[in-house]
């Protein structure tokens, strides 16, 4: 769905432009010292916005940081605003997934190499154990 509706992801400078095209960014009107922030713009593709919000509703409770983000925002701002915030983050992940061919948020933490010198993604030994750098005395 996202691939068909978004098309070539290279035409966007970054994930912010993709979320803006989907209409998931908040309105921002500003004049000198007065700033008005409003609801989402709803400009752009209705299908991408709908699919992102539906995907945000379907995020499982075991999704880790997405679930904690939704709970944290829902506690402060409400359930619907939290769903739109998670949809915006999911659309950011879709951008990186289409651009790079994999999703970085799903990769193991720490760059894929454990402190014991084993590559976490492939399970084989690297060039050697990573040693902590010496800290200067305080």
In short:
This protein has 138 residues and is mostly helical. 43% of the residues lie in helices and 9% in strands. It has one domain.
Number of helices: 5
Instruction: Sum up the overall morphology in one term.
Output: globular
Main-sheet strand order equals: 1-2
The assigned structural class equals mainly alpha
Number of strands: 2
Q: Poorly predicted ranges (pLDDT <50, ≥5 residues)?
A: none
The count of domains is 1
Can you write the helix and strand succession as a string? Answer: HHEEHHH
Helical proportion, percent range = 40-55%
Largest sheet: 2 strands, antiparallel
How far is the first residue's CA from the last residue's CA?
56 Å
In terms of DSSP E residues, the strand content is 5-15%
Gyration radius, rounded: 20 Å
Arithmetic mean of pLDDT? 80
Topology of helices and strands:
Elements: H1 2-6, H2 15-21, E1 26-31, E2 34-40, H3 46-57, H4 65-77, H5 79-100
Antiparallel strand pairs: 1-2
Characterise this structure.
- The protein has 138 residues and is mainly α.
- It has one domain (2-105).
- It is built from 5 helices and 2 strands, in the order H-H-E-E-H-H-H.
- The chain has a two-stranded antiparallel sheet with strand order 1-2.
- It is globular and about 55 Å long.
What would the keywords be for this entry?
single chain, 138 residues, mainly alpha, two-stranded antiparallel sheet
């Amino acid at each position: 769905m996202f691939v068909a509706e978004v098309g070539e992801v290279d035409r966007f400078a970054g994930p912010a432009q993709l979320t803006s095209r989907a209409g998931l960014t908040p309105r921002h009107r500003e004049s000198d010292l007065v700033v008005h922030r409003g609801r989402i713009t709803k400009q752009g593709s209705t299908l991408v916005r709908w699919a992102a919000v539906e995907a945000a509703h379907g995020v499982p409770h075991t999704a880790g940081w997405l679930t904690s983000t939704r709970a944290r925002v829902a506690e402060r701002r409400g359930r619907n605003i939290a769903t739109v915030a998670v949809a915006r983050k999911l659309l950011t992940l879709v951008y990186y997934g289409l651009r790079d061919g994999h999703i970085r948020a799903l990769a193991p933490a720490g760059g894929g190499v454990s402190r014991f010198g084993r590559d976490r993604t492939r399970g084989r030994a690297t060039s050697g154990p990573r040693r902590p750098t010496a800290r200067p005395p305080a």
